[in-house]
Design the sequence.
């Protein structure tokens, strides 16, 4: 019976989903609004984004990767890899062997990026396809000697309008056609840091601005005739949590600055001891109860944050809302970077277009699952990665997907159908068995022997 149901449904899917014209290559626009915490969607109003979702899909929580910072998470989305495997392990890095430094202001050395191959590079290696980018981290770097055919050097002062204008222009009139494009915007991250996510009034204003930008994006795509055929994913790199001046961890109270180099500070500190690792570790270990201190070899496996030379010998992980400082006052009212199992660190994902269902809600996926899904949409062979394509099947029109409530529904439905069929068969059999005596009677009638007993 199960087989029958599956056959029935796969038939349905092939007949109804088969119209996606394979003549034109699918196009995908990947959009990130930095620091868009998943539950902003429940706690604030987003009329434009909600319209987008109504006609598309929503994933309420995207479990991102540790550490929950901007550069590492943006690179995980486009490679499907954990940080230890793609090599962008923080916004601030130091490589002991080459003595190179990386920071968000000094990120253009391909050395840092070449441990992975981002999707815009893979897309461009396909014949007759190009990629375009409006500011996504890494898109202005020649990774494996390749930049997107169309890109912008990073500058926070370029307006959303200009980024949108140029990316849509590239999507419309390029040869070979742009089939993969990215668009990045700094809000609501910047305001989340400045005001803290619990500042309802300021966050309301900023999130309304973000929603208006989404409205502008959809409007532009409609005006240009791109809306119906373009797949659009709107997502983010991480969430945001409230910090407090009462939740400071001052390393200077525990250890002399001269005994270590601080590669990254908060909320995950990367510590490179100068002489004696054990000594530094022992001092930090007892420094503050709101901070976990790990030797590199003891970092919990669930973080997938260990097997890379750029991860320093000791890392410190502050508890949610706590800030690590060097004898300073609180630097920001909101922050991220914390444990990726905290829901405050999770972003969301919404998507719209011919590849996606309409009006479908899904509770959770991992951020590394986005990459194999994008490769599927673009018809690209994914590089080895840590994502699972199966996790996103329910979002896609050309996939067979089943979850528990649906499975129960289908089984009950199938039982009803079978019962009805059985009843019908019984009734039919009864009907079929009735005419026989009649025909005999008719014969008898012909014999002029009436219906008398
Ligand atoms: C199938 O595709 C054709 C052209 O590509 C389109 O005109 C038609 O409306 C589509 N039908 C369905 C059911 O989507
Ligand atoms: C690539 O595009 C050119 C011109 O648009 C066309 O002549 C050629 O057949 C295309 N190649 C493939 C493999 O689609
Ligand atoms: C956007 O396109 C315009 C017109 O082609 C160009 O002058 C401008 O430099 C582009 N902006 C960026 C940031 O690349
Ligand atoms: C980006 O900056 C580099 C170095 O300043 C410059 O050579 C290049 O032309 C710029 N690229 C774009 C697309 O603006
Ligand atoms: C912290 O800084 C103040 C001055 O800003 C200085 O007086 C104090 O000694 C410092 N404390 C530590 C532990 O370094
Ligand atoms: C490092 O410090 C620990 C604890 O203070 C000490 O036992 C050990 O001998 C030191 N090791 C070296 C190589 O100095
Ligand atoms: C993640 O994927 C990479 C590439 O396939 C692989 O080398 C690595 O072992 C994977 N990590 C985990 C934790 O499975
Ligand atoms: Zn960010």
Sequence:
């Amino acid at each position: 019976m199960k087989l029958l149901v599956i056959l029935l449904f796969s038939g349905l899917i092939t007949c109804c989903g088969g119209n996606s014209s394979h003549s034109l290559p699918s196009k995908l626009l990947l959009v990130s609004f930095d620091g868009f915490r998943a539950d902003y969607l429940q706690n604030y109003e987003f009329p434009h984004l909600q319209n987008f979702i109504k006609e598309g899909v929503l994933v309420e929580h995207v479990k991102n990767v540790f550490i929950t910072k901007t550069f590492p998470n943006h690179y995980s989305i486009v490679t499907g890899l954990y940080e230890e495997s793609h090599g962008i392990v923080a916004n601030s890095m130091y490589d002991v062997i080459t003595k190179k430094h990386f920071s968000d202001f000094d990120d253009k050395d391909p050395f840092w990026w070449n441990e992975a191959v981002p999707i815009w590079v893979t897309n461009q290696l396909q014949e007759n396809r190009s990629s375009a980018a409006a500011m996504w981290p890494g898109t202005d770097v020649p990774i494996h000697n390749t930049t997107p055919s169309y890109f912008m050097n990073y500058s926070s002062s370029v307006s959303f309008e200009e980024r949108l204008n140029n990316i849509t222009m590239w999507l419309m009139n390029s040869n070979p056609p742009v089939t993969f494009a990215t668009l990045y915007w700094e809000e609501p991250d910047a305001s989340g840091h400045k005001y803290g996510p619990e500042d309802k009034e300021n966050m309301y204003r900023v999130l309304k601005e973000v929603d208006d930008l989404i409205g502008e994006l959809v409007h532009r795509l409609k005006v240009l005739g791109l809306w119906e055929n373009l797949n659009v994913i709107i997502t983010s790199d991480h969430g945001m949590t409230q910090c407090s001046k009462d939740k400071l961890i001052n390393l200077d109270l525990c250890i002399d600055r001269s005994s270590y180099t601080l590669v990254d500070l908060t909320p995950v500190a990367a510590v490179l001891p100068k002489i004696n690792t054990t000594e530094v570790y022992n001092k930090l270990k007892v420094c503050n109860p709101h901070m976990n201190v790990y030797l590199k070899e003891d970092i919990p496996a669930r973080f997938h944050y260990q097997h890379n030379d750029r991860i320093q010998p000791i890392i410190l992980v502050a508890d949610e809302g706590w800030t690590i400082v060097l004898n300073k006052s609180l630097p920001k009212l909101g922050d991220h970077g914390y444990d990726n199992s905290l829901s405050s660190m999770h972003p969301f994902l919404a998507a719209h277009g011919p590849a996606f269902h309409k009006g479908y809600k899904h509770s959770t996926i991992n951020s590394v699952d986005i990459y194999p899904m994008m490769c599927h949409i673009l018809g690209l062979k994914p590089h080895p990665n840590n994502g699972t394509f199966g996790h996103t099947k329910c979002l896609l029109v050309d996939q067979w997907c089943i979850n528990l409530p649906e499975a129960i529904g289908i089984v009950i439905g199938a039982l009803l159908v079978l019962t009805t069929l059985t009843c019908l068969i019984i009734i039919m059999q009864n009907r079929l068995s009735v005419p026989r005596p009649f025909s005999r009677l008719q014969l008898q009638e012909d014999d002029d022997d009436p219906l008398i007993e």
Summary: Residues 404-433 form the longest helix (30 residues). The chain has two domains: 27-81+116-242+339-395, 248-334.
